[in-house]
User: Fold this.
Amino acid sequence: MPLKNRRTGKRLRASIAAGVLATSTAVALLGAPGAQAAPAERQVVGRSGSYAIVVTYKPRSGTTKRAISMIAIDRNVSKYKGTLRARWLYKKPGGSAHVGKSWRKAAYTSEDGSRWYEAWWGRRNHYSGLSYPKGTKFCGQFKDNAKKVCVTLK
Assistant:
């Protein structure tokens, strides 16, 4: 059964829906009686109009740092066909904004009449060393528009 947005009733994009399913499954497995409670993978999802950003992370044990595994940025489109490029930025608490990664070509996807572009950095469950403190703000931006969508690590 496809996941739906509670407010609008529309189907969630495959990338966000898959991330939510994987996270809820991991939480259910880790919550088994007698299991050692390890830090579970978590997600923060931000939406603004036709833009969405998903940051997947895992808290580091004994510290306020968060190990980042994946960042995904999506943009719904209606009639636009062409090449879109996306990038992500971050701002540590008390610091200034920095570009995380430079412009990357976004992949065009369509499903059941919905069309969107999405760009990904990293892979699920692979924590390659990117660690940011709690409260870091991540933003996603497409090259043809100054608008950004942001989330904050919890």
